[in-house]
Amino acid sequence: MRDCVALVFCVAAFTAWKVTAEAKELSITTIKDDPYTMSRGAELEGYCMDLISELSKELGFKYKVSLVKDHRYGVKDPSGTWNGMMGEIIRREADLAVAPLTLTAAREMAVDMSTPFMQTGLSFILRRDPASPESSFSLLSPFSTDMWAGLLIAFLLTGLCMFLVGRISPAEWAGPDTEEHNFTLLHSFWYITGALTLQGAGPHPKGLSGRLVSAIWWLFAIVLLACYFGNLNSMHSNNKHVSIKTFEDLANQDAIDYGTLEGASTMAFFKNSKNPVYRRIYEHMERKKSFVSSMDEGIRLTQEGNFAFIGEAASLDLAVARDCHLSRSDETITMRAYSIAAPLGSPLLKNLSIAILKLSESGELTHLRQKWWASSCVAGSRAKTSEALRPHDLRGLFLLLGLGLGVGLLLALLELLSGARNQAKDGKKSCCSVLTSELNQRFGGKGGSEEGDDSGKSKA
């Protein structure tokens, strides 16, 4: 008899709730937080929107979703007043709060909380290291592969240009038939190699053309070395992140700053914790005022580098899935859960909890997690090479080098042409024949002059 009465009571309660729910459109408050609730035009979408839709199908209620007015989850101030979504539920401005609302003792005492729809914990994210310190080729990491190929081409072209200028310019090689040429191909490459190490390697150019090529190459080498060592230093300073694997590592270092969401349950956990490591973390954040106003701000600071954002692992996993530059710590502490909040004594709660359990058992919650946490990070080595300088980063420097080499060769030819004209006037010969003879002597051997003289005699 007692069982029958209890059964009738449950059926009556469920019927009364359903009639009430159908008669009244439920007011649901939420907060923008990827991927739980996001804007798509005038509508909202995300994990929580899909969860509400599935619950409405399961329980047959109509609803209207609105964003929390003060953009906060809910924390109690010193006067005992709750803000955010918690405040709206307590003041009965909303029937339900569906969001990544962490189940805590303080919230459970203030409102009714449903069976959790997601389990998570606390962790932190860092900017991924641009180059692994364990790599044997970390010294090559400041420049990309294309950059190294461009530098090799620039080195070869400069050495060849120095050799040609040394051959063509009369100031470098005044008497091809009597003097030995100083700027051989081997010496030309040795000379520009010395410039890369900021050391001289004589003999030095004497003419304007040779000095111009040398000056342009020295300028190129100085700027290049400055970029290389600057980028190398930046990468090695970022490698300090490698040793930060746990919250204890985070608390024991000063290389990077860290913070969490202001006024959220994560901040309250560190504030109220009796663990000395977690207390030190909170004291550091309080001293540095490194709390952030939103999840997006915390992720942005982490992407900029030298900042670790502490948050709930589920939200951090999404940030890592969307940005290849970020990585999450393997350590997860203080396991916690997300629940739906309702006013104290709400008749909705029991049936909501049952519906959430049904969705969990059917695999629908797992499907929603996979749907909204799908990785959009492009696979490959982009994260590793993103900090390396590429040719287009220094295209102005390469253009300056190319222009200098071209002007240097042109000046060498003008110097040779000027000398040929003077010789032609003195010897009453054709300028073209003298120029041809000079080029033959400089590039074809000493016999060129003799052949030129013989041809002149036969014509005479």
What topology does this entry show?
Layout: H1 2-23, E1 26-30, E2 38-40, E3 43-45, H2 47-59, E4 63-67, H3 84-90, E5 96-102, H4 105-110, E6 112-113, E7 118-127, H5 145-168, H6 185-196, H7 208-238, H8 247-251, E8 257-260, H9 265-272, H10 276-288, H11 295-304, E9 307-312, H12 313-322, E10 326-328, E11 333-342, H13 349-361, H14 364-372, H15 382-385, H16 395-427, H17 431-444, H18 447-459
Parallel strand pairs: 1-4, 1-5, 8-9
Antiparallel strand pairs: 2-3, 5-11, 6-11, 7-9, 7-10, 7-11
Helix pairs in contact: 2-13, 5-6, 5-7, 5-16, 7-16, 9-10, 16-17, 17-18
Structure description:
- The chain is an alpha/beta fold and 460 residues long.
- The chain is built from 18 helices and eleven strands.
- It has helices at 2-23, 47-59, 84-90, 105-110, 145-168, 185-196, 208-238, 247-251, 265-272, 276-288, 295-304, 313-322, 349-361, 364-372, 382-385, 395-427, 431-444, 447-459; strands spanning 26-30, 38-40, 43-45, 63-67, 96-102, 112-113, 118-127, 257-260, 307-312, 326-328, 333-342.
- Strands 1, 4, 5, 6, 7, 8, 9, 10 and 11 form a nine-stranded mixed beta sheet that branches. A two-stranded antiparallel ribbon has the order 2-3.
- A hairpin with a 2-residue loop joins β2 (38-40) and β3 (43-45).
- α2 (47-59) packs across α13.
- It is elongated.
- The termini are far apart.
- The model is unreliable at 16-23, 130-134, 379-386 and 446-460 (pLDDT under 50).
